[in-house]
Design goal:
single chain; about 240 residues; alpha/beta; Undecaprenyl pyrophosphate synthetase; 9 helices; globular; binds 3-methylbut-3-enyl trihydrogen diphosphate; binds magnesium ion
Length: about 240
């Protein structure tokens, strides 16, 4: 185990968040700063995933969510979107081969407009890791919170309509179970890189009580140090 992680774990005052959600932002600016095309930034953005996943798992985080593509990101140039979609195919293959053995990978978001090849790799990765009992790794890809809530509302109304659910029994827990994150703990800590202080349609329902931590560093430069500082911030009382 990483000795730095031991430091955090050995500090009995430190509470580890159950669910950490990260908005991976700044790939384009990372590349621009180096005089490289944006696509290089996206490729570099896959680098921190494996290490941060392992670190979170060793720390005892129950759920880690990476926001890698929002429903709003389709408005980018065709060239960039096409590049990202191909990169995500490689990403899922790499993910299931490289993240710790006991990690369960789940996709949150909609599959509309994703290529059949990408949908296949997502499903393969979910299936191959579905019996793992360790940390859940959510990949928010083609995810948007309002679309998730709209979808949840429709499904809930349908269940009331057909008599599967009684309107008097609808409460917050029931609504939570209509989200993609059904059965998972709420988000305790949101991390966003690259100096942007926005929520960007990310886990609005699940983050009602979350603490936020921001860094000016770009996502491809994200390391354990950032994670440690974010967790320390989570522990600060205010
Ligand atoms: C985040 O980096 C990755 C995706 C949204 C796919 P950006 O592509 O948003 O990088 P910036 O914000 O333009 O630097
Ligand atoms: Mg951005």
């Amino acid at each position: 185990m990483n000795s730095l992680i031991n430091n955090l774990l050995n500090d009995s005052r430190i509470k580890i968040p159950k669910h950490i959600a990260i908005v991976c932002d700044g790939n384009g600016r990372w590349a621009k700063k180096k005089g490289l095309p944006r696509t290089f930034g996206h490729r570099a953005g896959t680098n921190p995933i494996e290490g941060i996943t392992r670190d979170c798992s060793e720390l005892g985080v129950e759920v880690l969510t990476f926001y890698v593509f929002s429903t709003e990101n389709w408005s980018r140039s065709d060239e960039e979107v096409n590049f990202l979609m191909k990169l995500f195919v490689e990403f899922f293959i790499k993910l299931r081969n490289e993240v710790g053995e006991n990690i369960r990978v789940k996709h949150i978001g909609i599959t509309d407009n994703l290529s059949p090849e990408l949908i296949d790799e997502i499903k393969n990765t979910e299936n191959l890791t579905k019996n793992n009992s360790g940390m859940i790794l959510n990949i928010a890809l083609n995810y948007g919170s309002r679309s998730e809530i709209t979808n949840a509302a429709k499904n809930l109304m349908h269940d009331i309509d057909v008599g599967n659910l009684n309107i008097d029994n609808v409460n917050e827990e029931v609504i939570s179970n209509y989200m993609f994150t059904s059965g998972l703990p709420d988000v305790d800590l949101i991390i966003r890189t690259s100096g942007e202080m926005r929520i960007s349609n990310f886990l609005l329902w699940q983050s009602a009580k979350a603490k936020l931590w921001f860094t000016n560093d770009f996502w491809p430069d994200f390391r354990y140090d950032h994670l440690q500082n974010a967790i320390k911030h989570y522990n600060e009382t205010d």
